[in-house]
# Entry
Amino acid sequence: MESRLRIAVQKSGRLSEKSLQIIRDCGIRFGSDSRLLKEQADNFPIEFLYLRDDDIPRYVYDGVADIGIVGRNEYDEQGLELEVLRDLGFSKCRLSIAVPEGFAYEGLNSLEGKRIATSYPGILARKLAQAHVNARIYEISGSVEITPSIGVADAICDLVSTGATLVSNGLRETEAIYWSTAVMIGHPGLFAEKRTILNRLLLRIDAVMRADDYKYIMFNLPKEHLDEAAAIIGGMKSPTVTPLLDEAWCAVQTVVREERFWDVLEQLKALGAQGILVTAIEKMAD
Ligand code: ATP
Ligand code: ZN
# Structure
């Protein structure tokens, strides 16, 4: 029987859609019917297991799934030794201390002797130990933000992306102690056959992620400014330069990192670049 790589993804929640989207962007076709527990792709030897995110590290650790996509927070909280294959960059959030209005917070020291509710006791305990703060940690699996108002805790330590939930519960975010994004984790001892499939998948994922980081730009430039333009563009390769009918001009094509894009555009314009075209890159492999 042909072997398949088993990937654990969140069944329904904040990670689900993006986890499946990145696999789809790799050209892998599947139904993504989240009512199922298990599903196979049509055109790639991969099989999906739809699970609660809390269960994903354990399944990968036990080898029930070969790889998984989970928040780094969940992975670190559980402390199971796995391979972190890729940082996928999405589902950004932070684990923050938040206190009710009126709590005079001046740093982790202010938590000495207090009761802190959290779903991440492991990460919080490590942070408090580093700061030599003794506090009582209450592990709570959900709705952490209501605990101060019902008198269960003095402060909380919870995941935040925008902070809106905290504000609506009368809490003030005081300090972030941990930052997270979604990561792809892998079972450390994969057999050669599965490793080969994994490497094929990672090649595609890298191409998808790199494509997101770059723009493709084309423009016409007076030849005399070519050296200066090349210096502005910088990056990984020299640009492709094509002659134009007008011998004083040339056409240039290259890729530019997304974060530098506006900067580069302005500088090229200042050099006299014209007819600048910019396109998104769908895939990009070495
Ligand atoms: P499950 O039913 O699978 O256990 P859950 O309720 O534990 O779901 P979600 O709320 O879907 O989990 O969050 C999954 C992950 O999304 C978190 O572990 C975290 O990595 C990430 N995340 C991003 N932003 C936030 C946020 N504002 N609040 C909570 N988690 C966030
Ligand atoms: Zn969960």
The two ends are 32 Å apart (CA to CA). The domain at 5-89+182-211 is CATH 3.40.190.10 (D-Maltodextrin-Binding Protein; domain 2).
